[in-house]
Protein 1
Amino acid sequence: MGQISHEQFYQLIEARQSIRQFKKDEVPDQVINRILNAAMHAPSGKNRQNWRFFVVQGKKRDDYLTYSQKSWLRIKDILQKQLKPSLYDFTERFFFTLGNAPVLIFAYSVNTAEENYLTSIGSVYMAVENLNLACVAEGLGCCTMGAPLEIKKEVDEFLGVTEDELYKKGEIELLCGIVLGYPDHKPPKAPRKTENKITWLR
Ligand SMILES: Cc1cc2nc3c(=O)[nH]c(=O)nc-3n(C[C@H](O)[C@H](O)[C@H](O)COP(=O)(O)O)c2cc1C
C-alpha cells in the first residue's frame, strides 16, 4: 500500500466513533462519491455487490426530520429505561434535528434467492463499515442508525423505493440510515467490552 503505516491503519479504526452533532458545512459531492466508492470496495457474497445507497440532501433531508421524529416515538420508551437523563435528552434532540447533519445516506440490500439472506445483509453492512471508516479519513463524522427500520415502509415510500421493480418482488430491503457531516463535537470514546467475545479453539 505504501501510503499509510500499520500504526496509522489501526489509529484510523480506533478513531471511528459515532458522531451526532455536525457543522452546517456542506459536504462536496466528490467527497461523498469517494466514501461511497470506499463502501463499494467491500467484499460481498458471490460478489453480488448487492448494496444500494440513497443520498439525501437539501430540502429532502429537511423533510426527513418528520420521519426521524416519528422513529423516535417508537424507541423512546426503551431508551428512557436504558439511558441516564442527560443522554436521553441529547438523543431526543438528535432525533429531532439529526444533529444538523447535511447528508443522510440510506443503505439497502438486494436480497434474491441466489444468495443466503444473512449473507446479503452482512455484505451491505461490510460496505457500511467501509463508509464509516472513509468518513474518518475524510475528516467527516457519521452515525449509522437502525432507527429508520422502525418506520421502514414509510422510509421506502419517502425515497421512492416502493416504485422499484425489486421492491414489488420483495427483493430490496432497508438496512440502515447514516447521518454524516463535519463533526461539531468530540464525544468520549464508547468503552469496548472484551470479556466473553472471543473463543479460541486449537
Ligand atoms: C446497526 C447499527 C444501528 C445503530 N442505530 C443507532 C440509532 O438508531 N441511533 C443512534 O443514535 N445510534 C445508533 N447506532 C450507533 C451506536 O449507538 C454506536 O455505534 C455504539 O453506541 C458504539 O459507539 P461508537 O460508534 O461511538 O463506537 C447504531 C449502530 C449500528 C452499528
Note: Strands lie at 51-56, 103-110, 141-145, 172-181.
Protein 2
Amino acid sequence: MMNNGTLISLSGITKHYDTGKVKVRALQGIDLEIKRGEFIAIIGPSGSGKSTLMNIVGCLDTPTAGEYLLDGRPVANMGIHQLAAIRNKKIGFIFQNFNLLPYATAYENVELPLIFAGAPGAIRKEKIMRNLSMVGLSERADHKPTELSGGEMQRVAIARALANDPEVILADEPTGNLDTRSGKEIIEIFERLNVEGRSVVTITHDMSIAERCHRIVRLKDGIIESDTRNGNKI
Ligand SMILES: Nc1ncnc2c1ncn2[C@@H]1O[C@H](COP(=O)(O)OP(=O)(O)OP(=O)(O)O)[C@@H](O)[C@H]1O
Ligand SMILES: [Mg+2]
C-alpha cells in the first residue's frame, strides 16, 4: 500500500477513564503522524498521558475516540487475531521493568515470540543467537533474569522485542530503572536499530536521551504541547 512512508497515523485520539466519581481525561485529542525510520522521544510531566498514548500506539489499549491507522489500515476494524499478529510481528514493545519471564533463560525469553509466530526450531535458534549477539549478550544466553544486571535484562528485552523483526520499536521509559551507563548502552542500541531503518519511539524523562532522538514530542495534560524535529517546530 502506498502511504508516503507513514507508518502510524493518529487523529483526534482521546482516552477517558471512568473510575466511579472522577472522569480522567488522559488524552484529549492527539494528532500524530510517525513515518518509517523516525527516531522519536515522547516527553512530558508525570500523568501527561505518555504511557496511555504509547499503549494505544502499541495496540495494547484502545482509544475512547479518534482514528488510528497503522500502515494505512484502521486498527479499530481489526479482530483480536489480527491485533495479536501485529503485536507479535510489527511492533516491538519495551517496558521500564523489562517484563521478562523470571524462570526462563535469556534464550527462552527471546524464543517465546518466535514460538508464537510459528518459527521452526532451526530458524528460532539462528535468530535468537543473532539478536542476543546484537545486544552484546551471546555469553549470557543461559542466564535467568535474576542472574543478570538491570542493563542486561533490558538488553534481553530488546532482543525479545526484535525477535520477529518489527518495523517499529516502542519503549516506555526503558532506562528509567537503569544507571546512567546502562541507560547509555540502551540508547546506543536504539540508535543502531534506527540506522538500520527501524522506527524507534521512546518515552523518557531524561533530556540527555531525548536530545539524541531526531524528533521530540512533548505532552501536557493529554495534548501535544510541542513537536520539534532537530529543534525546529513541525
Ligand atoms: N487504568 C487507568 N484508570 C484510570 N486512570 C488512569 C489509568 N491509567 C492512567 N490513568 C490516568 O491517566 C493519566 C495519564 O496517565 P499515564 O500513565 O499515561 O501518564 P504518564 O505520562 O505515562 O505518566 P508517568 O510519567 O508518571 O509514567 C493520569 O492522570 C493517570 O492517573
Ligand atoms: Mg508512564
Note: Residues 38-62+79-233 form a domain with the Rossmann fold fold (CATH 3.40.50.300).
